[in-house]
Every structure is written in C-alpha cells, then in structure tokens.
Amino acid sequence: xxxxxxxxxxxxxxxxxxxxxxxxxxxxxxxxxxxxxxxxxxxxxxxxxxxxxxxxxxxxxxxxxxxxxxxxxxxxxxxxxxxxxxxxxxxxxxxxxxxxxxxxxxxxxxxxxxxxxxxxxxxxxxxxxxxxxxxxxxxxxxxxxxxxxxxxxxxxxxxxxxxxxxxxxxxxxxxxxxxxxxxxxxxxxxxxxxxxxxxxxxxxxxxxxxxxxxxxxxxxxxxxxxxxxxxxxxxxxxxxxxxxxxxxxxxxxxxxxxxxxxxxxxxxxxxxxxxxxx
Length: 278
Description:
Elements: H1 23-31, H2 33-38, H3 46-52, E1 60-61, E2 66-67, H4 69-80, H5 84-93, H6 103-116, H7 119-126, E3 135-139, E4 145-149, H8 150-159, E5 162-163, E6 166-167, H9 174-179, H10 190-194, E7 205-208, E8 211-213, H11 233-241, H12 253-270
Antiparallel strand pairs: 1-2, 3-4, 5-6, 7-8
C-alpha cells in the first residue's frame, strides 16, 4: 500500500503517473532503505525540506543500477501528485543566488513537471531556468560525479527524450507548438542579449560529507535542438555566464540579500513551511 499512487492524483499522459517510470526502476526504488525510511509519509510540504538535503542530481548508477535519492524523491512526487501550482512555487522559490541550498529542489521540480506537465507548461515554466547557471553535482551512470549547471540539466529536459538513461515522455518540438499557436515565439531576455562579462565560480561543491568536486566551468553545453532562435556568438557567450556570478555590489548588498530572503520566506509561509535559515 505504501507504494501505491495516492487516491485523487490526476493521471498523466493517460495513465498512472508512477508508471511513467519503468517498473524495474520503480521496484529498485521501492526496495531501497532511503525510500522506506526517508520518503515514507512525505507530502507536498515536507518533501521540500528533504529535497534541500540533496547533494547531487541523478537517476541510477553503478553496476547494480542503484536509484539515487533524487530519483526516489521524483518517484515520490509522482506518487503524491502535488498540484502544478505548488510545483511552480517550488521552481520560483528556489530561484536566485541566495537560495543555494534549494538548487536541487529546483532541478527536482523541473524534472517532475517534465513528466506530468502539458507541453506549453513545460516550455513556459522551464525555459526561464535556462538562465540559472548555479552549479550542481551530477552522478553519472558509472557512479562518478561531475560538475554541471542547472541550465544544462533543464536544457536536457527540454531537448532530449531521456536523462541519464531515464526515459522522458515525448515532448513536441517548440517550433511545432509555435506553428499551432499553442506557444508564443521564444524571446531572449534583454539582459542576456546585452550580456554581462563575468566568470563562472571555481569553488568546489560538496557532494557528501568530506567529499568535494572541483568546478570546471560551464564549457561544452549542448546546443538547444528544440528550435529556439539564438543570439550572436558574443551574446551567447555572455548568456552562458551572466547569472552565476553577478557583479559585486558596493552598497546595500546585505539589505538586498535580506529582502530576497524575506520574499522567499513569505512564499514558504503561504505553503505552511519553516523559514529559510539566515
């Protein structure tokens, strides 16, 4: 019973949302101690704090194809089926440099929406995350770790039919939706076109207690194959780096940071969640 999809959860793509994950992968998830002990009883509110504890994104890894905690929480979301507006609030809540502890929540919410959302929702809600260049740790299929970025993860969700061997539902290409007038043409934000000359962070990211992975920048990102029109090469260079390290403000930085934290806490209060640590 603990593994059944909650009653009242809306179907996705014509069926049980959990069935969007293959049975063999689901069975591996259900057998994990992490699933039984850490995911039991989670709901749309408490899963936020559990996602904040994640140290990396991933699906399965190693010779035994062991499911990652990230995948376990994804299956849990498919099981409990939170409303899309709650997922949208997760995506918005976890935005910004001052919400660094929630970067994996944002990746999780985006991945979940990719499974259950309508095509227009997926593009409209995920494309803004393409300007979130915060670094994340990805656990690869062989079990090793690598540094990537949130925008790279989301770009894969938008342009591929699988992510680290985990199948994704079919997503129409953007230009097809535009031709059907189901989606407005894509526009690059003005600040991206103008560009901000900044360098990516070289600070190591913690994977687990006592372990770190050194950053290697954000080179070699895959071009978007869903037909978004691109700015010039120089504009694209700026687009890739402008968000991760913003220009240091000489005055009022602490006040602005506190304001952003207050805004995030206001949203958490609406969801009945504990405030962020300050």
